[in-house]
Design a protein that fits this description.
heterotrimer; A alpha+beta; B mainly alpha; C mainly alpha; A: 17% helix; 21% strand; C: mainly alpha
């Protein structure tokens, strides 16, 4: 399954998803999408569209049709497992709560 | 909504120059005026594209380039004006066509998108070389304006090169139009590198345009050929923009640009 | 806000299983966001496409009345601000088209709907901008009304719409202020400038108030949009909020709002205002405004003039990709 906006080649220019690193030390985060004829122009269009107010120091673009996503109908089997495994989180360990540096 | 995020910027701007106590020496002001006019006229031409570009993404791209150029123009004109107690707007709106010193390339109408790309390619490479050299000027204000501008125009070069390739190597139609665009703009290349009458006595401060020709010649013809196009061979137009001689395109452009300001002399906006 | 009554579950056009419908209703009720791949009632999807694309078209068509003054802006500062603002509108149209695209409609289709008149855009942009002061009025009144409308939309139940609106609201915070300052500068200026400002506000005030849409009792779609948490406040509530904000701002400007019935109502804690001419609203909406045909024709022309550019760059991209593939194949 590709990204939600992919129009399957019906448009002259394909759709691209844009990810921006807002400053050093942070991950690239999805900013939005745009149209461009190829990856070279996509990254430039992303610069012009999504960093006009100094929002970014680095840009990724991915063709929307190249994105593979989890199946929305498989939410249960994909995301149920972590439920009930509270022992993966520090907050589960209440006995040691008051002990310094733990 | 957050109205409180103050934008703190250290970049040199028309405002920061106007707020400072810097005063351009007469000769430097005369030189800066010509450079400011070049940037202003081209910025105005790019402003004509907004809402008319081939795709919305390109509206935004051309808008950014136009705004960069307008920024350069405002800094240069503001700096020039400090010599005469005049504002950027006094200079932009209340000089007539013969007093404008812009080189003729910049006033050429954008025509179709290919003609605009041809004009941008020539202009951007010229600006990049100019500002790179000018960033070493011994005049600190000119050097600072150029240092900011050079990074921006490097991006403009890239933008026009990308489109030159796509139009030159795209379809037969785009190839034909890109060639026609280059042919239209090429006669105005020569003037860019003619001596600037206001740069002659400014050793170390101004840039001698003839010095920039080599870099232009070693880059632009190769880019054109790489894009499957032919380097135009038509003769250079006579030029003379720096001394107020312009093509027929500038008059109507200025008439439009200045009409409102001139209808209300002395008004502030 | 209290959860509105459920009106969605038995929508005739919704298919989906009982589980899917329950999940959708749960998301809406819990004030969570619906995301593109989630099941949603067909009517919800259609409503969103209609509203988001209409909003996108408004941004794009809205570039024209202001673009009209870029080449004549009376100072270089104003020229830069106006260029940046009109450029932002192109950007905002793009964000919104992208949000609509996640619902399964592409930009090309939306564009066709715009130029054939199948899709609407805000009627306000069918008014013309004969004077520079109109740049002030558009910023102060039109963008002001738009912002009132848009801020609650940042919390719209459909995720991509809310996210697009958040970005837009952040960027638009300067749009209203720059318009206000254009008028402020005019009101501090010469008599001719003051008259220009007042005349312009006289023309834009009522149309701006009508941007919130017809009165609640004549706006059947609003009810459902509110149930779905696409819309958070009714047309009349937003309009009242806007008028309450405008009056003190007009005082700062020293400008008169052209409504003799405008006065503070102590009991309601709001300003009362006079009736609006809804006949005019529907006239403009149905195509008999000052510039309907021109606006659409101009957009169509720009799009058609650009076709060869879009086509050339696609051909180039395809060829480059094919060549890259050949090179890779030969190398391996």
């Amino acid at each position: 399954m590709t990204s939600p906006g992919d129009s399957g080649g019906r448009e002259t220019w394909p759709l691209w998803e844009v990810f921006i690193r807002s400053s050093r030390g942070l991950s690239h985060v999805h900013a939005g999408s745009l149209h461009a004829p190829d990856e070279t122009m996509a990254v430039r269009n992303a610069r012009d569209l999504y960093t006009r107010r100094a929002e970014g120091v680095s840009i990724w673009v991915v063709r929307a049709s190249d994105i593979t996503s989890s199946d929305p109908d498989a939410k249960g089997e994909f995301f149920e497992s972590p439920q009930g495994k509270e022992y993966r989180h520090a907050t589960y360990y209440s006995e040691s709560e008051a002990v310094p540096h733990l | 909504m957050n109205h409180s995020n103050h934008v703190v910027s250290t970049a040199i701007t028309a405002e920061s120059i106007a707020d400072s106590s810097v005063v351009a020496p007469e000769a430097v002001a005369q030189y800066a005026l010509g450079l400011g006019d070049d940037a202003l006229v081209l910025a105005h031409r790019l402003g004509e594209w907004i809402a008319n570009a081939p795709e919305l993404e390109e509206d935004v791209a051309l808008g950014n380039i136009g705004l960069d150029l307008l920024g350069h123009a405002r800094s240069l004109l503001t700096y020039a004006g400090t010599a005469w107690g005049q504002s950027e707007d006094d200079l932009a709106y209340f000089r007539g066509e013969p007093e404008f010193r812009s080189r003729q390339l910049f006033e050429q109408p954008g025509g179709d998108f290919a003609a605009t790309i041809a004009r941008q390619l020539i202009a951007s490479v010229y600006f990049a070389e100019l500002y790179r050299a000018l960033s070493l000027s011994t005049d600190p204000t000119l050097a600072a304006i150029a240092a900011k501008a050079v990074k921006e125009v490097d991006y403009h070069v890239d933008h026009s090169v990308q489109w030159l390739r796509r139009l030159g190597l795209g379809t037969d139609l785009s190839h034909e139009r890109m060639q026609r665009g280059l042919d239209l703009m090429w006669p105005f290349v020569g003037e860019l590198f003619q001596p600037d009458p206001f740069a002659t006595d400014l050793d170390g401060i101004a840039v001698d345009p003839e010095r920039l020709r080599l870099a232009f010649d070693s880059l632009v013809p190769r880019l054109i050929v790489d894009a499957g196009l032919t380097v135009p061979t038509m003769a250079a137009a006579q030029g003379g923009g720096r001394i107020g001689r312009h093509s027929e395109a500038l008059g109507p452009m200025l008439a439009e640009m200045q009409v409102l300001a001139r209808a209300h002399p002395g008004a502030t906006w | 806000m209290a959860a509105p009554a459920k009106t969605t579950v038995d929508d005739a056009s919704s298919e989906g299983t009982a589980d899917q419908r329950r999940e959708f209703d749960r998301l809406i009720e819990a004030d969570m966001r619906v995301e593109p791949r989630d099941w949603m009632p067909e009517a919800y999807r259609k409503t969103l496409i209609r509203q988001i694309s209409q909003h996108a078209h408004s941004e794009i068509i809205g570039m024209q009345p202001e673009g009209n003054w870029i080449t004549r802006a009376p100072s270089l500062k104003r020229k830069a601000i106006l260029m940046a603002k009109v450029q932002d509108e192109a950007g905002h149209g793009l964000y919104l088209y992208s949000a609509a695209q996640t619902l399964g409609i592409d930009r090309e289709t939306m564009f066709e709907q715009l130029i054939t008149g199948a899709a609407k855009y805000s009627s306000i942009f069918n008014y013309t901008t004969p004077t520079w002061a109109d740049m002030g009025s558009i910023g102060w009144l039109v963008d002001g009304a738009a912002i009132c409308n848009q801020v609650p939309l940042c919390r719209a139940s459909y995720g991509p719409y809310g996210r697009a609106m958040t970005r837009i609201c952040k960027e638009e915070s300067f749009h209203q202020r720059q318009g206000f300052e254009i008028l402020l500068e005019l009101m501090r200026g010469t008599d001719a400038q003051k008259a220009m400002a007042q005349e312009s506000v006289n023309r834009w005030y009522a149309p701006a108030l009508m941007m919130f849409g017809p009165p609640d009792e004549d706006s059947p779609n609003s009810q459902r949009s509110m149930a779905w948490k696409i819309k958070r406040f009714s047309n009349d509530d937003l309009r009242q909020r806007f008028v309450d904000m405008l009056v003190p701002q007009a005082e700062v400007l020293g400008i008169t709002l052209p409504d003799p019935d405008l006065k503070w109502n102590e009991e309601r804690g709001h300003y009362d205002f006079g009736p609006l001419n809804w006949d005019e609203f529907y006239e403009v909406l149905s195509g008999r405004g000052q510039a309907n045909a021109v606006r659409v024709a101009r957009r169509k022309q720009a799009h058609e003039n650009g076709a060869w550019v879009r086509e050339a760059s696609r051909v180039y991209a395809d060829r480059e990709a094919a060549e890259r593939e050949t090179t890779q194949r030969m190398a391996s």
